[in-house]
Structure of Replication factor C small subunit:
Amino acid sequence: MSEAAESEGSRGREVWIEKYRPQTLEDVVGHENITERLEHYIAKDDLPHLLFAGPAGVGKTTSAVAIAKSIYGEEWRENFLELNASDQRGIDVVRDRIKNFARSSFGGYDYRVIFLDEADALTNDAQSALRRTMEQFSNNTRFILSCNYSSRIIDPIQSRCAVFRFSPLGDDAIAQQVRIIADAEGIEVTDDGVDALVYAAGGDMRKAINGLQAAAVLDETVDEDAVFAITSTARPEDIKEMVQMALDGEFTASRARLESLLVDSGIAGGDIIDQLHRSVWEFDLTERQAVRLMERVGEADYRITAGANEQVQLEALLASLALNEE
Ligand SMILES: Nc1ncnc2c1ncn2[C@@H]1O[C@H](COP(=O)(O)OP(=O)(O)OP(=O)(O)O)[C@@H](O)[C@H]1O
C-alpha cells in the first residue's frame, strides 16, 4: 500500500488492525490447532518457552499478547515485556532490558513473559548470548520468540522451545474477518471487493485489514477497483495476460504490459514476482510451461532479493519465456 493511502486510512480514526486485534486466543482465527495447545499450557499453568515461526501479519504477536492477558488479566502490561530483536541499539540493550525486567519485583506470579519479535534478525553469536540469558532467568521468565524462519534460529534455542508454525491464513479466514470488520464499521464491501482483498493480502491478515480501511476512506462502497488501486496490487488477469503474451512469443507486448504495471500502476517488482509465484497454477499452462515459469520465478526472486534491478530481472524472465515458445 502507498504511504499516502496508509496515512489517509488511519487519519482521525483508530487503526483497525489494533481496534480489531483479537483479545483472546479463542478469537485468533485460522490457527485452531495452535491456539488450543496454547490454551492447554495456560490451563495447566505450565507454559514452556515458545517459538512462533511464520510470515508477517498472521497472528504471532496477537497470540503472545493473548497469552499474557489470559495469564495476568488486568495486570498483563506489568508482566509482559515486548522487545524487538533487531533494535537498532543492539543486542546489549535488549539483554539489559530483559535483565532489568526479570530482576524487578514480582506481583505474586511465578514468572513473567518476554516476547522477542524478529528473533531471526539476531546473528548466531547474539543468539548464543540470548540462550545464556534465557537459561539465567528461566526460573522466573518465559520467552516467546517470534521469527519468520525457524531455520534461522540456532538449534540450542529451538530445542529449549515448543515450536509453533503459523502458516499464511486461508482465504476463508481472511474473508470472514474482513466481513466482520466491514459490518462493525457499517461499510459496504462487494463480493469482488472481498475477493480482491483476500488476493492482495496473500495470507497476511494485517494487509487485508489495512487495505479495507484505506479503501473505505476513498469510497462508501469498497469494490475490487478500489482495492487493487489502494493496495498497489496488479489484477490477476493483467499478470496472466503478461505471461501468456510472453509464452506466445510476443515479447514486446508482454514487456509493455510489465512496464505499465511497474511505472503506471506503481507496483513493486518484488510484488509482481510474489503474485506470479502465487498464481502459476491458476494460469492454465501446460505442465512444461508451468515448470519453466516456476524455475524463472525462483531465479528472479533470488536475484532481486540479492539486490539486482527488478525491472531487468522481470524483463529477462519474460524474454526467457518468449524464447522457449512451444
Ligand atoms: N489469526 C488472526 N486472527 C484475527 N486477526 C488477525 C490474525 N492475525 C493477524 N490479525 C490481525 O492483523 C494484525 C497484525 O497481526 P500480528 O501483529 O499478530 O502479526 P504477526 O504475525 O505478529 O506479524 P509480524 O511478524 O509482522 O509482527 C492484528 O492486530 C490483527 O488485527
User: Anything to note?
Assistant: Strands lie at 49-53, 80-84, 112-117, 141-147, 161-165, 188-189, 221-222. Residues 1-12 have pLDDT under 50 and may be disordered.
